[in-house]
């Protein structure tokens, strides 16, 4: 089966976006999990690097990921505030 360049490019883009989303999810999980300081530091460093790359080369994905981060952090903050009030 021979794929046209457009079809191949779309498949490659989809696979790249899926991998990027998975990797961010994994790195974010490591931040939330009680890990060593080295794991935490490396996870944050990898995410910051990935965000810098996305901001330069794929603005749509950058905006999607940062929006998700803000939602998660906002939810975490709101949950923590609610727990502290009890």
Q: Quick gist of this model?
A:
The chain is built from three helices and no strands.
List the keywords:
0% strand, single chain, 86 residues, mainly alpha
Class based on secondary structure composition and strand pairing:
mainly alpha
Task: Please give the alpha-carbon distance between the first and last residues.
Answer: 62 Å
- Give the helix tally: 3
The ordered H/E elements are HHH
Helix content: over 70%
pLDDT average, as an integer? 83
What do these coordinates show?
The chain has one domain (5-85). Helices cover 88% and strands 0% of the residues. It has helices at residues 5-32, 37-57, 59-85. Helix 1 packs antiparallel against helix 2 (37-57) and helix 2 packs across helix 3. It is elongated, with a radius of gyration of 17 Å. The mean pLDDT is 83.
Structural topology:
Elements: H1 5-32, H2 37-57, H3 59-85
